[in-house]
Amino acid sequence: MSRGESNKGDKASGRQGGTFRKKSYARGNAPIKKNTAPKQVSDPNSIRLNKYVANSGVCSRRDADIYISAGNVTVNGKPVTEMGYKVKLSDEVRFDGQLLNPVKKEYVLLNKPKDFSTTIRDEKGKRHVSGLISSASKSKLLPVDKMDKEDTGLLLFTNDGDLTKRLKSPINGLRKIYHVVLDKDLRNADLVKIQEGVVVDEKVVKVQDISFIDDAPKREVGIEIYSSRNKIVNRLFEQLGYTIARMDRVVYGGLTKKDLPRGHWRYLTEQEVINFKMIK
To answer: What is the CA radius of gyration of the chain?
Structure first.
């Protein structure tokens, strides 16, 4: 074999000058590697740990990552610091020892129209307020308090059981303002009695304010009250011989009907939620 033929053979086999020349894959000539790793099957019952913590209301998802990396979060009794870690809804997750609930807390305000019930739907199929906010959440949201079917106005819905419990019986009361239409004109003497305090079921009902509605008949009044007693406004007027023909709740806590037409709903803002959670 001639020397020229030998060099050709060496080049063809990748050998040059007695050494092997490595092939370059810089131009995309690398062999295709088959991915033999099994694909991770998505579990519909699992959720990222940071989202789990955030949904519980402890903090934002970004802050949750910080707490997780610091070891503040445990899953089934063991600290987890791995980012992107997924947990099952059946797992026990704690933050600084406190058991967490992964259901995201939601808060919806409805301007309730007339002829909608706030009690559990019965067999007769009465229209229920839950149908008016059905598109607001996939979670089951319940009204914080009850309103008569004929009553209208502000009604708060949430799945936050702790907040509902506080709002139903706050120590300092919850501010509510009603526009009340009576079956007859309210006498000035009875208006004064209400201002001074009327006894209902052996307990004085104190109102913050009551006044006639401007440019309206004397049977229309506005009343501000902090009591959480059941149907206390109705019972207050009944004690003085009046029947409420219509009642509209125009203020609930710090919430108003501004830009919220009858039958429509909106989510509470972050600040509004914070304000409610400060109520004891």
So the answer is: 33
pLDDT, one tens digit per residue, over 59-89 is 888 999 999 999 999 999 999 999 899 999 8
Domains and CATH numbers, the chain: 46-99 (3.10.290.10), 107-170+258-277 (3.30.70.580), 176-252 (3.30.2350.10)
Coil, strand or helix: which one is 22? coil
In which residue ranges of the chain is pLDDT below 70?
1-44, 120-125
The sign of the torsion formed by the CA atoms of 179, 183, 186, 190 equals: negative
The kind and range of the H/E element at 277 are helix 270-277
82 CB burial (10 A radius; 0-12, 13-18, 19+): exposed
| Integer Cα distance of 26 and 243 in angstroms | 89
pLDDT at residue 228, rounded to an integer: 84
92-103 as b/e, with b when 16 or more CB fall inside 10 Å?
ebbbeeeebebb
CB atoms under 10 Å from CB of 34, counted, come to: 6
CB atoms within 10 A of CB 83: 11
Q: The tokens of 63 are what?
A: 């802050």
| Token representation of residue 228 | 């959480």
**What pLDDT was estimated at residue 14?**
47
Count of CA atoms in the C-beta half-sphere (13 A) of 261? 0
